[in-house]
Specification:
Elements: H1 2-22, E1 30-38, E2 49-52, E3 58-60, E4 66-71, E5 77-82, E6 89-93, E7 97-102, E8 113-114, E9 121-122, E10 130-134, H2 135-140, H3 146-149, E11 156-160, E12 166-170, E13 188-192, E14 195-196, E15 210-217, E16 231-237, E17 245-253, E18 257-267, E19 272-283, E20 287-289, E21 294-296, E22 299-313, E23 316-327, E24 335-339, H4 350-356, E25 370-371, E26 378-394, E27 397-413, E28 424-428, E29 431-447, E30 450-465, E31 469-473, H5 477-481, E32 499-520, E33 525-547, H6 555-564, E34 568-590, E35 593-604, E36 607-608, E37 615-616, E38 619-620, E39 626-627, E40 630-644, E41 647-665, E42 676-695, E43 700-715, E44 719-720, E45 732-733, E46 746-760, E47 763-776, E48 779-780, E49 790-791, E50 794-804, E51 808-816, E52 824-829, E53 836-841, E54 846-854
């Protein structure tokens, strides 16, 4: 049945163009083509943005400076043309073929054109807090994935102990901090070319041929298919072109770093164009395993993206995209960062346990980057899929249908005790995920004063173990699990090889209808209401069974084994539906000032626990299988300004209140794999954000962003205790008023570039020197605040110098973490809560060179 549904979706998308054409071909009154050149030198300007004023229609000039626009509007009309380093120009067009000459401006900033509201418009004109990173900027800065990109956008947080356990947050909200539970949905939408990626592992992959990344802050459920309660990443890749072109890039660096990228595009026929892109990254490991005498935590990434663009008529565009990405590192190992004294009795403290076992840590300094793990680390992460996107120009808008199927294969091996002791011999959770999505929307102008977007969205997911998850104890587990002085704990072979095999399956469906209007009450005052209806269902079948260890019928020995692992099975079926919406008032006093205020409410879907449930008095707490949906109330107000033609300055204040906040919590039970989900009664996040750009002249430019974010549990009366309180009188505590994990109160970035025109051999371009700094203050790395699991603030400096050309050869030298700052990205308690905790270390100083060629 699911296959038939999926096929129907794809066939529906295929036949939409033919159905649309059968309804009557729109009358095309003007097909405008032309060329954009430098007014002084008549050189073609590649990458200039050309848009029809007041519409969603636009294009970018090719390598020859040429563009083509197809529109239903009658001549004459006005084109708006922008290009970095040149004066923005509005030209009234009377003929179907034109040449537009731009005058160089040594100081004016070019408009950043975005598509997040399903139309082309300036980022400064949109009443949404948004950060835009162009693909070239990200490439020059070495931001080849989201983890690197966060250094350019301070409101973004990404934590990853491995691709599966990846937390992508905006303003500290989105996904649970720490170890991921597959039973909940992320609150930050991750879209690539209009396709929603459901698994957080997607954020760990390398970018492949990126055109632009738009980071929208705050709820966006009335614009996007999947509900996004915290924000969205809207990523667009470079599209196929009917003009031949190519780019090649190779980078070399220390630690054996090699990265290669390539992209080819061009016509296959008069109406069919293609683009093929590749990215590969390798690097030696940054940790050394003294037990195996090998370096670990290397990079071994491959990515491919292929596109076909079909223009059967002047008003239909169909794009077929296939992609596949693979990460196969010997990596994602963590190093022990410290030992916490818990409230357990003396013989249950980590140092006492290891002394009895004759074990000593290989180093007491985590930044020695030394480990001695006895279980191999493996983090095979594979994602890919197909999508079919059809865009049909109807009237003064565009009807879009996006159909997609995606997969995720996860094959890991972890050493969750972080030592060479045989405590946890196996910790493996291989999984297979498939999703299909279908979105249909219409965006356009309904009248001279009314525009908007309306659509429908559906997603189906199937996540299952492949074939099962394994957790297995070793010969030393008895000493870590020992909870009494009974000599029976030392029974030979009692726990060695004792483990659990878990089979589970999560099937879910989500559907939504959404829409947002932009009503121009006057030329300056706009009202933007939006509404959304959500339906979510999730069905879980969970079963785990014990195996191995010493065969016995002795009740006392069985009790010890059951204290470590037990059989567990449950089914959960949840259904939820809700309405949400927003209202924005925007007032544009002039071309220099754009103010807005937004009130919204939204829901993060109902969740289910999929990593095992805790027990009480030997009974499974099945009432914890269901995790209530979050109810989000959000307010923000902002002003976007252009103090001068060469600068922008934007300010936003925001406040988010969440009822039944979904949070990941740890437990001392080894059998509750990766913790479990719970609801905190109330959470609040408030903050202020400031960002700006200034282009002093053609030689100097600067950009900066500063964010203050305060996130607190307003009420969490039944939270688990932090690591240092394990073994106390209670397993839970009231942490109301405490800070949310993963949020720095202060975060900021500052960058600048100095450049000058010149030649390298006979090639025209610009020499440049650029520096970027990123700072964040201290933050908690524990769901329940711990005085030990706090990460100190740190600052990073990245730099690059080189020669850049639009066409031909570009070369640069670069360094990341130029000052070789030692810092933690995340701290994680070890399984079983014996008192030791591990760290995800930030990379030390890296440097290298990149050679790029475009034509």
């Amino acid at each position: 049945m699911k296959l038939i549904t999926t096929l129907s979706i794809f066939l529906g998308t295929l036949f939409i163009p033919f159905f649309a054409s059968a309804q009557g071909t729109p009358i095309i009154n003007a097909t405008v083509s032309g060329k954009v050149v430098d007014a002084r030198t008549s050189e073609a300007l590649m990458g200039a943005t050309v848009a029809i004023k007041g519409t969603t229609n636009g294009a970018t000039t090719n390598v020859n400076g040429e563009f083509a626009l197809i529109t239903g509007q009658k001549l004459p009309f006005t084109l708006v043309v922008t290009y970095v380093g040149y004066l923005k120009k509005e030209v009234v067009i009377n003929d179907s073929k034109v040449e537009i000459k731009l005058d160089e401006n040594t100081s004016q900033l070019s408009d950043v054109v975005i598509t997040s509201r399903r139309r082309q418009e300036s980022a400064q004109d949109v009443p949404i807090p948004i950060s835009v990173i162009r693909g070239v900027t990200a490439e020059d800065a070495g931001a080849f994935n989201v983890n690197r990109l966060k250094e350019l956008v301070p409101t973004v947080q990404l934590y990853s102990s491995n691709p599966r356990n990846t937390t992508l947050n905006i303003r500290g909200l989105g996904s649970t901090f720490g170890l991921t539970n597959d039973g909940i949905d992320p609150g930050v939408g991750f879209y690539v070319d209009g396709v929603y990626f459901a698994r957080p592992a997607a954020a760990a992959l390398d970018f492949v041929d990126i055109e632009q990344v738009e980071v929208l802050r705050g709820p966006q459920g009335t614009l996007f298919g999947k509900n996004t309660t915290a924000g969205a990443f809207n990523i667009t890749t470079r599209a196929p072109s009917f003009d031949p072109g190519a780019s090649f890039e190779i980078s070399y660096g220390n630690f054996g770093y090699i990265q290669a990228k390539a992209s080819l595009t061009g016509p296959i026929s008069k109406k069919l164009a293609a683009r093929a892109s590749f990215s590969g990254t390798q690097r030696d490991g940054l940790l050394y395993n003294v037990r195996t005498q090998n370096h670990v935590n290397d990079l071994n990434n491959l990515g491919f993206r292929g596109q076909l663009l079909y223009n059967p008529t002047d008003y239909i565009k169909v794009t077929l995209i296939g992609d596949a990405s693979s990460q196969k590192p010997n990596g994602y190992a963590q190093v022990i960062a410290g030992v916490v004294p818990t409230k357990r009795v003396a013989y249950r403290q980590f140092n006492a346990i290891t002394a009895d076992l004759g074990y000593t840590l290989p180093s007491s300094n985590p930044f020695d980057r030394i480990i001695d793990h006895d279980t191999p680390w493996r983090s095979n992460n594979q994602l890919g899929g197909l999508s079919l996107n059809a865009e049909i120009k109807l009237g003064s808008g565009t009807l879009t249908s996006t159909s997609a199927w995606r997969y995720w294969n996860w094959d890991p091996s972890n050493d969750r005790d972080y030592t060479s002791l045989p405590v946890l011999k196996l910790s493996q959770a291989p999984s297979r995920h498939e999703q299909w999505t279908q979105e249909i929307r219409y965006a356009g102008l309904f009248s001279s004063r009314l525009s908007g977007v309306a659509g429908m969205f559906a997603i189906g997911q199937d996540l299952k173990t492949a074939p099962y998850h394994t957790e297995e104890a070793g010969a030393a587990q008895w000493r870590f699990a020992q909870s009494s002085t009974s000599p029976l704990w030392q029974t030979p072979g009692l726990l060695d090889g004792y483990g659990i095999r878990t089979t589970s399956r999560l099937q879910s469906f989500g559907g939504a209808v959404f829409g947002q209007l932009d009503w121009a009450l006057t030329d300056k005052l706009h009202l933007l209401p939006g509404i959304r209806f959500n339906y979510d269902q999730k069905d879980v079948d969970y079963k785990r069974e014990t195996y191995g260890g010493l065969p016995t019928t002795d009740p006392a020995l069985l009790a010890i084994k059951n204290a470590v692992y037990t059989n567990q099975a449950f089914n959960a079926n949840v259904r939820e539906n809700n309405f949400s919406g927003q209202l924005t008032v925007a007032y544009k006093a002039s071309g220099q000032f754009n103010t807005f205020a937004t009130y919204s409410n939204s829901y993060k879907p109902v969740g289910v626990n999929l990593g095992g449930l805790p027990t009480a008095n030997g009974q499974v707490l099945t009432d914890l299988a269901r995790v209530k949906p979050e109810y989000v109330t959000h307010f923000e107000a902002g002003i976007k300004t252009r103090p001068s033609a060469q600068s922008t300055l934007n300010l936003v204040v925001h406040n988010t209140d969440i009822k039944d906040y979904q949070t990941q919590v740890q437990t001392a039970e080894v059998g509750v794999n990766r913790g479990y989900l719970a609801n905190a009664e109330r959470v609040r996040v408030l903050g202020v954000e400031l960002d700006g750009n200034i282009r002093v002249n053609s030689n100097f430019s600067f950009n900066g962003a500063l964010a203050y974010t305060d996130g607190k549990y307003l009420s969490f009366t039944n939270a688990p205790v932090p690591l240092e309180e394990v073994g106390g009188e209670s397993a839970y505590k009231d942490i109301s008023g405490s800070a949310l994990p993963g949020i720095s109160k202060w975060a900021g970035s500052l960058g600048g570039e100095v450049s000058g025109a010149g030649k390298m051999i006979s090639l025209k371009g610009r020499y440049f020197l650029a520096l970027d700094t990123y700072y964040r203050s201290s933050f908690s790395s524990s769901a329940s605040p711990s005085k030990y699991l706090n990460i100190d603030g740190y600052a990073l400096v990245n730099g690059r110098v080189g020669f850049r050309a639009s066409n031909g050869v570009s070369i640069l030298l670069w360094s990341r973490n130029l000052l070789n700052q030692d810092y933690f990205e995340q701290l994680l308690p070890a399984a079983g809560s014996a008192g030791h905790y591990a760290a995800v270390l930030g990379d030390q100083r890296t440097f290298g060179t990149t050679l790029r060629y475009n034509f």
